[in-house]
Amino acid sequence: MSGGVPSPMREQKLIIDAHAHLGPAFQTRPPMLPGVTGEQIVRILDDAAIDKACVFAPAWEGAEFVDPGYEKANRAIYFAVREHPDRLIGYCRIDPNQIQQAEKEMVRCHDEYGFKGLKLHPLWEHFLPSNTKIIRPILRRCQEYGWPIFWHAGYYPTCEPALFFGIAGEYPRVNHILAHLAYAHTLDAIILSQEYANVFLETSGNSTAQAIGATATAVGPEKLIFGSDLPFTQPEDVIMKIKLQPRLSAQDLDLVMGGNMARLLDLPHVGKGKQ
């Protein structure tokens, strides 16, 4: 027998899901998978071999859970991240129409909770990304905090990619992630991302493998970000669509599956794994 030399430890690139929800609002609107607690989300991450996830509150819908300003929801995110600091990355969620309350909640989420980003949903909260009266204070805060903004994108009339041209150019140091490849407006989202270095496109929703591949080719793998939309979807479905892309090299996949998100959040992109 040859001498037993232990296999060296090698650095493994982390997989970071950029799009996951959790919180008590799911008690009134159960999603596809259980997602009320951080423990439930971490269990899904384990099953899908995902290292970390960016988590934020689902939409507030009313009923017995009253939280129009997302204070309760953000606090639930804080507790989940505190329980699973190595797996969950907290994002703030606000309703920009509540201008003073929204900014106050951003300050709380940054100063007290240590969150790393912001989630905005123009369709659900009924505002336009081009409405600079309510958006500029938010952008200034995100610029100060170094927060990326994760946008629900794609639907007419509030989420079309064309509505982001003004703010992307006015605040070039604020990074914007457009979810779902903007659904039916993927081509417009590609044009936006090609125009601005601070606009990235995310893979979740009903994105087809063809749309993911076309987007990666058009904007480059450094502008494409893996997200699954947990717990509304099975993350393995999205992962498979990405990994089946023939034009994405191993290095490209590292960027899409976690490297790009790690760079935007100023996080390490490596972990220790056994060879």
List keywords for this structure.
TIM Barrel; single chain; eight-stranded parallel beta sheet; globular; 275 residues; two-stranded antiparallel ribbon
Number of helices: 10
The CATH architecture classification is: Alpha-Beta Barrel
* Major sheet size, sense and barrel closure: 8 strands, parallel
Neighbour order of strands in the largest sheet: 2-3-4-5-6-7-8-9
Low-confidence segments, ≥5 residues, pLDDT <50? Answer: 1-10
Structural class: alpha/beta
Proportion of residues in extended strands: 15-25%
Specify the overall morphology. Answer: globular
Whole-number mean pLDDT:
92
SSE pattern: EEHEHEHEHHEHEHEHEHHE
Beta-strand segment tally: 10
Count of domain modules: 1
Return the CATH class.
Answer: Alpha Beta
Q: Kindly report the name of the CATH homologous superfamily.
A: Metal-dependent hydrolases
Radius of gyration over C-alpha positions, nearest whole angstrom: 18 Å
Describe what you observe in this structure.
It contains ten helices and ten strands. It has 275 residues and is an alpha/beta fold. It has an eight-stranded parallel beta sheet with strand order 2-3-4-5-6-7-8-9, sandwiched between helices. It has a two-stranded antiparallel sheet with strand order 1-10. α3 packs parallel to α5 and α7 runs parallel beside α8 (209-219). The chain starts with 8 loop residues before the first strand and ends with a strand.
How is the topology of this model organized?
Blueprint: E1 9-13, E2 16-21, H1 38-47, E3 52-56, H2 71-83, E4 88-93, H3 99-111, E5 117-120, H4 122-125, H5 132-145, E6 149-151, H6 165-170, E7 176-178, H7 186-195, E8 199-202, H8 209-219, E9 224-225, H9 235-243, H10 250-265, E10 270-274
Helix pairs in contact: 3-5, 7-8
